[in-house]
């Protein structure tokens, strides 16, 4: 079997790592570079794409043929892409629910194909460094990547000629690289992962050598790219204010501004000021500006503060407070920014932030903080790739004392009769996981059942995401007779497989949910918020719908019973049943048609009254059924 390598397929940079003699390390390319920029240049005439540092150099000259930050488009649809999301120079296309494509010289490319070019270079570099073929890999993804984005990542690996052995969450991989498996039992760690394009906050607990993710929260479109865009917009306005032209429609000039903005941002992580020089950025116009660190922080503070809400939600989901954590580790190149470290330290109460030095005085304060330790001991650019390499070694049979368990970030379930969501796998369930339930029909003589798979936290199906639909056919039968078992299985890569089986005939279907949710990724963040905001409203809606279904079934049974036993019960009993039926119908008539809700407690009481009034009727129906059975067996005549 060939060696399994670990790959961090990043928004800004990508890396490949391995383990040798128990030590993980990042493999360098022929030039000695360990970070491969996730940038691809597509030359005209069908020549092979150029990846990495050379592509960055060409981006200034050929911006329309150079693709960067492609990770943000993985597994997404055209309807989800907006100009405001990211300032790019290459043509992104896609309509409605169709896949995103990038129009480049010769043909259009999918994000998976472009990512595959990056992976091909990493594969070549690994083979050159190791002196042997590399055909197997563990690839990391943001914890909040949905099913379609994980599938797209796996497909990119396969297009690059790799067997993807495991898709691993980036924060979880980072915890492995920090050696946190050597902490004391029950240690709890928060992983703050702010990269070029994505943000995650995951909370893990160590139990007998097992890393278990207690909760995760994040945004797949929040990262260093957003800071770059804010700084680019600021510089474009500065250029106009100094008498220069509007460069927003000039791709070559815009590419130069982008490169200058990125370099200035990087320098300001270690320096107080960064000089930005753009000679001849326009005919007869030079631009020079010195950007102080404080000005960059003022420009971008609101973007970075957006990570706080995700951190607080993840803590709440894990039922923890900051003081319950042992460590907070920083992952992703953007966490080198002093303001990021200050925000994290303030939020988790890690340590006093020394603004004069631009770092954290860990262990040097007069009053030692009661909160967790802020751990910045690892290279934030390399931590994820090293963790992926450790996971690869685990799969190869090494590091047997460590096991990795992830969680699913949102609940998964089915739409049931009445438009409700029935949860099969609750959010924050440890994966891999398998769970199922038995369902039946609500209408007489149905010939098939619609399996509508949902993801989300709301009670009503319409308020959740639709992952897909399929039907299972079976022989018609009275309602309540068919039995259909539905099983959800989330594999180790976080990909959902749904099985539906008719227990009577054995007919079944297995569907792998591949499609992305036709909603912007920002809705992921809103989903949990809305579930909390509408918790009481949703609970009342569920109580009403369930009571309404019971009321409808009880009314149908009462009507049928009256018709079957009209000659066998007295007038007083008939009137009692009829009066109770009118009471139920009256409450149902009071339903608010706009919100489809009503007084569930009143309806429950009306159903109970009908059940009580119908008791003699039910007893007579049972007697008749017994008599019919005895006659059929010849016991009575």
Explain what this protein looks like in three dimensions:
The protein has about 625 residues and is of the alpha+beta class. About 35% of the residues lie in helices and about 25% in strands. The protein is built from 14 helices and 31 strands. It has a 7-stranded mixed sheet with strand order 21-18-13-14-15-22-25, sandwiched between helices. A hairpin with a 3-residue loop joins β23 and β24 (about 420-425). α11 (about 535-565) runs antiparallel to α12 (about 570-590) and α11 (about 535-565) packs parallel to α13. The chain is elongated, with a radius of gyration of 30 Å. The model is unreliable at about 350-370 and about 515-520 (pLDDT under 50).
Range of strand content: 25-35%
Summing up helix and strand content along with how strands pair, one would put the structural category as alpha+beta
pLDDT averaged residue by residue:
84
- The tally of beta strands, per DSSP, is 31
**Main beta sheet, described?**
7 strands, mixed
Low-confidence stretches: 352-368, 514-521
The tally of helices reads: 14
Major beta sheet, strand line-up: 21-18-13-14-15-22-25
Distance between the termini: 78 Å
Q: Helicity range of the residues?
A: 25-40%
The outline comes out as elongated
Radius of gyration: 30 Å
């Amino acid at each position: 079997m060939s060696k399994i390598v670990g790959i961090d397929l990043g928004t800004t940079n990508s890396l490949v790592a391995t383990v040798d003699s128990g030590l993980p390390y990042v493999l360098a390319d022929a030039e000695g570079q360990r970070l491969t920029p996730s940038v691809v240049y597509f030359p005209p005439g069908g020549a092979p794409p150029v990846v990495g540092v050379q592509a960055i150099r060409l981006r200034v000259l050929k911006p329309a043929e150079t693709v960067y930050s492609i990770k943000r488009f993985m597994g997404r649809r055209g309807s989800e892409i907006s100009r405001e999301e990211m300032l790019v120079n290459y043509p992104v296309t896609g309509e409605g629910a169709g896949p995103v494509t990038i129009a480049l010289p010769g043909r259009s490319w999918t994000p998976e194909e472009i990512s595959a070019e990056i992976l091909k270079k990493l594969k070549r570099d690994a083979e050159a460094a190791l002196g042997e073929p590399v055909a197997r890999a563990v690839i990391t993804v943001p914890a909040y990547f949905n099913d379609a984005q994980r599938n797209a990542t796996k497909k990119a690996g396969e297009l690059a000629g790799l067997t993807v052995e495991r898709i691993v969450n980036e924060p979880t991989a980072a915890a492995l690289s920090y050696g946190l498996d050597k902490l004391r039992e029950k240690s709890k760690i928060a992983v703050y992962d702010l990269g070029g394009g994505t943000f995650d906050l995951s909370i893990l607990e160590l139990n007998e050598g097992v890393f278990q993710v207690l909760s995760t929260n994040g945004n797949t479109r929040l990262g260093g790219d957003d800071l770059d865009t804010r700084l680019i917009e600021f510089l474009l306005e500065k250029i106009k204010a100094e008498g220069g032209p509007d460069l927003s429609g000039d791709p070559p000039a815009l590419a130069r501004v982008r490169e200058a903005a990125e370099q200035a941002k990087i320098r300001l992580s270690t320096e107080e000021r960064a000089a930005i020089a753009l000679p001849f950025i326009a005919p007869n116009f030079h631009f020079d500006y010195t950007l102080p660190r404080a000005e960059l922080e003022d420009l971008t503070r609101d973007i970075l503060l957006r990570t706080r809400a995700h951190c607080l939600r993840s803590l709440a989901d894990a039922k923890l407070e900051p003081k319950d954590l042992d460590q907070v580790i920083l992952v992703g190149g953007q966490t080198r920014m002093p303001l990021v470290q200050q925000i994290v330290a303030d939020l988790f109460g890690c340590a006093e932030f020394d603004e004069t030095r631009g770092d954290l005085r860990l262990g040097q304060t007069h009053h030692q903080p009661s909160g967790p330790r802020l751990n910045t001991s690892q290279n934030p650019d390399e931590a994820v790739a090293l963790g992926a390499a450790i996971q690869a070694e685990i799969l190869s049979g090494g590091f047997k004392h460590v096991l990795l368990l992830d969680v699913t970030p949102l609940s998964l379930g089915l739409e049931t009769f009445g438009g409700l969501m029935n949860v099969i796998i609750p959010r924050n369930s440890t994966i891999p996981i398998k769970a199922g339930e038995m369902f039946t029909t609500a209408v007489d003589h149905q010939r098939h059942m619609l399996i509508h798979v949902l993801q989300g936290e709301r009670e009503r199906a319409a308020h959740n995401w639709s992952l897909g639909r399929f039907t299972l056919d079976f022989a018609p039968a009275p309602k309540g007779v068919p039995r259909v078992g539905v099983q959800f299985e989330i594999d180790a890569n976080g990909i959902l497989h749904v099985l539906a089986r008719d227990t009577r005939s054995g007919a079944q279907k297995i569907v792998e949910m591949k499609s992305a949710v036709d909603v912007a990724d920002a809705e992921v963040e809103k989903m949990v918020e809305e579930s909390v905001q509408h918790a009481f409203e949703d609970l009342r809606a569920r109580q009403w719908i369930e009571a309404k279904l019971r009321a409808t079934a009880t009314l149908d049974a009462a009507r049928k019973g009256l018709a079957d036993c009209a000659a066998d019960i007295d007038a007083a009993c008939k009137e009692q049943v009829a009066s109770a039926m009118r009471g139920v119908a009256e409450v149902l008539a009071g339903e608010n048609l706009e919100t489809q809700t009503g007084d569930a407690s009143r309806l429950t009481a009306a159903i109970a009254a009908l059940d009580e009034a119908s008791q003699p009727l039910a007893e007579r129906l049972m007697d008749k059924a017994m008599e019919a059975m005895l006659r059929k067996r010849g016991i009575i005549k």
